[in-house]
């Protein structure tokens, strides 16, 4: 499967408003998942909470991976500068990292303002859709 064929599949996923598209041929398997469009649906599995939802027991908001790939918290490959660290104050819409998949870099942004309590994955870790990346204590309103 070449780049143009994959690009057509991504276009189909968006045009048909599909959540998941899996295709295979003789030697290739492609699995594409579309990032949540902001709608939160109830899940039967208590282990998964959609991005930006509040963990009931701790009062923390979890920022989760919207796709499969490699999570990076460092701004550049050869830099020690990170997007956020534990204790950082963040605002809604701030970039807290990015996920790389097939040389495409997708920003991970916060859905809430508050203080970073925990970074659940290390720089360069492989992540899957729904994995918790960062836990944030929301600001008091």
UniProtKB/TrEMBL annotation:
Source taxonomy: Bacteria, Bacillati, Bacillota, Bacilli, Bacillales
ATP-binding recorded as keyword: no
UniProt KW keywords: Biotin
Gene3D superfamilies: 2.40.50.100
Protein name (database record): Biotin carboxyl carrier protein of acetyl-CoA carboxylase
Biological source species: Jeotgalicoccus saudimassiliensis
CDD domains reported for this sequence: biotinyl_domain (cd06850)
Superkingdom as given in the UniProt entry: Bacteria
Alphabetized Pfam families for the sequence: Biotin_lipoyl
Domain Lipoyl-binding: 58-137
């Amino acid at each position: 499967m070449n780049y143009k064929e994959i690009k057509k599949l991504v276009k189909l996923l968006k045009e048909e408003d599909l959540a998941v598209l899996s295709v295979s041929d003789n030697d290739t398997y492609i699995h594409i998942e579309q990032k949540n469009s902001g709608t939160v649906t109830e899940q039967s599995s208590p282990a998964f909470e959609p991005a930006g939802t509040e963990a009931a027991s701790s009062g923390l908001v979890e920022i989760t991976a919207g796709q499969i790939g490699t999570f990076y918290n460092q701004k550049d490959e050869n830099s020690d500068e990170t997007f956020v660290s534990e204790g950082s104050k963040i605002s809604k819409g701030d970039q807290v990292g990015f996920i790389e998949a097939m040389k495409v870099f997708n920003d991970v942004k916060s859905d809430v303002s508050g203080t970073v309590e925990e970074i659940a994955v290390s720089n360069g870790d492989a992540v899957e859709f729904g994995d918790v990346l960062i836990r944030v204590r929301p600001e008091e309103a």
